[in-house]
Queue: 2 jobs
Job 1
Amino acid sequence: MYKTFLSKVSLFAGLPWGSLKKLAAMAKERSFRKNEVIYQPQEPESVLFVVQQGKVKLAVGDGHSKEIILYIIGEGEFFGEASLLDGPSMSWTATALEPCRTFVIPREPFRRFVQNNPTVLMKLSSALAARLCRTERKISRLVLADAYEKVASVLLDALEEKELPLKQGAEIPLSLRRRELAGLVGVSRETFTRVIGAFQKAGLVRVNNRSIAVINPARLRREATRSICV
């Protein structure tokens, strides 16, 4: 069962069955309740978390009003990879957004594993570089962009991450509450609601029950670098 799931994780896709068996043997399953903290910055543990079921938010802040969500990690995705490469503890807090099951792989057994499976190390390095690039873009938005630019950028990022085509009517599934979406943007829930309302009024998006449809992708991309006038 573990081997089958791990074979579908991008980091381990294509590994021989024997390697997957070794990987599964070093992984431990851990479950978390909704809103339970999975990891905090002060914890010394260096492990790789692979989400088997549920969603996890990686955030900095106090976890309440002053919180910036860096990433939402879903099924088949992983986090904690930076601590496996150079050893420093993670600087964010990981919290279960819903009941979660994860596989936890300790640092030292994993490091020995990648010595015999260099393709995994290459994928891990690429994933870390991509996540660092996304983090830098987010920091730049937080410092330089206004609320409209931030929301537009996050909507475009969501399409890119889900590998959805940037075309009229493209649907962005919403599995997060408005507070969590606002945390991803780096604004208050009220500001997020106001900006989405302005985008809808201007004909850029259409807000449905569980998704946001991008009506004018070209203009939304322009708004990612220039404030909309409302």
Job 2
Amino acid sequence: MNYPRPLEKTLEKLDTPPKIQNYLEKLKYNGGDKCHSPLHVVKNKRAYCFEGALFAAACMKYHGHKPLIVDLRAVNDDDHIIAVYKRNGLWGALSKSNFLTLQYREPIYRSLRELAQSYFNFYYNIKGEKTLREYSRPMNLNRFNGWETTDEDLNYLGEQIDKMKHYPITAGHIFKNLRPVNPKLLKASLMGAKLHEVYKP
């Protein structure tokens, strides 16, 4: 596919997961309901979690890897979508989030379940409740056309991944006795966050 030069120039440079994550972390957090394509992420220099995942997936695709995203499903909180990749048979993740604890994961996880579980203790709402409950199968964005450069709203991709099979993070009875998050960790994880964009339980 021939990309517009502003997008291609950026994708060319971001040829490793750490470079992609560094780029994501420099972007301003984007509010609003519309999900913009990677082209518009580059133009506007802003993204929220789903836009960040799509952008990271576009980078991986440009450099010959599958553009895979995974949905982390929560209760009493926002869901979170991450881009996932494999290195030496192990899974890692790329992510944009208002919460610092929900971003990058090194490729050290033997399964997607292990990767998703690595987010559990750090996935909480502003009341300190741990909220992560399920994770989806990876969705391969090669199934869809034009998502890298469209001017249209890409929320339909979110609807597609929401319909995919999701798996429990752990046994349901575990959730009855969860320890609230340390207030100091909660405060630290929101450093630099746009608090008006954070889910209010």
